[in-house]
Amino acid sequence: MNPLLRRGWFDRLVMAGLTLLALAWIAPLLWVLALSFKPNEFLLRHTDVFLAPPYTLANYLDILQTSQVFRWLGNSAAVALLQTVGVLILSSLAGYGFARCEFPGRRALFALVMFGLAVPAQSVFIPLHRLFSDWNLQNTLAGLALPGLAAPFGVYLMTQYFKAIPTELEEAALLDNASRFKTFFSIVLPLTLPAQATLGIFTFLACWNDYLWPLVIATKPEMYTLTRGLASTQTNFAQSEGLGFLMAQAVFAGLPALMLYLFFQRHLVTAVAGTGKS
């Protein structure tokens, strides 16, 4: 058989396999989306027929009629934005320092930061809660956002990306008597836009979907994030409102994160490719 023809058949088989895997991955998402448009009384009898009518928007209207849902949405947006901006700033500065600056203990300190990747966030909830309670930061936006600023993955990503940038660009600026900070902000930092976008997406999604820390630190309904608030309505009304209402909540909570990912997805491949350079 012609090698080119054999390669063509192999590529088709690989594409068919990837298509099947993609369909298997997306099927539960489509099931959730379809059930969110079904009347709850219909779902009491059927949950397996999700493409056929009837359809309704009542489940989404019930969410919008929840008294504090837009406040929860605003809390989630504010916390996610604060945490994302903070992580981008701190990770960029730390990554540049580890990639470009020589100082005593640099390797040991970087190894200590990387060790943070192995520490589960849940294992430090008790000391964090006591610390933030002593600082009177319980039920505040700062209390919700500050723990997420410790981002070992962000430091690693930015360090690897800074290492991939040629040092000649900085050396030319330094020869022109530019300061280290001016070189960083004017020349090096703009080149890291793909990595910044990728880190921003990961940070925003992790904060937006976080449930455990808001459950611990936010005890007043007006300070709930969207995940915490919707979970509280499920606890109170899940059995009476039905499965369609729960599915609509899942879709409603996931839409902002999905739109953010679709908007910035083209930067992901560029950033990952950049971290692979030495």
TrEMBL record:
SUPFAM superfamilies: MetI-like. It is found in: Cell inner membrane; Cell membrane. The keyword Transcription regulation does not apply. GO terms for cellular component: plasma membrane. Keywords: Cell inner membrane, Cell membrane, Membrane, Transmembrane, Transmembrane helix, Transport. The keyword Ribosomal protein does not apply. One of its GO terms (biological process) is transmembrane transport. It holds the Pfam family BPD_transp_1. It comes from the Bacteria. Residues 73-264 form the ABC transmembrane type-1 domain. The chain crosses the membrane at residues 12-34, 77-96, 108-128, 140-162, 183-206, 243-264. It is a multi-pass membrane protein. Part of the ABC transporter complex UgpBAEC involved in sn-glycerol-3-phosphate (G3P) import. Probably responsible for the translocation of the substrate across the membrane. The complex is composed of two ATP-binding proteins (UgpC), two transmembrane proteins (UgpA and UgpE) and a solute-binding protein (UgpB). This is sn-glycerol-3-phosphate transport system permease protein UgpE. It comes from Roseateles saccharophilus (Pseudomonas saccharophila).
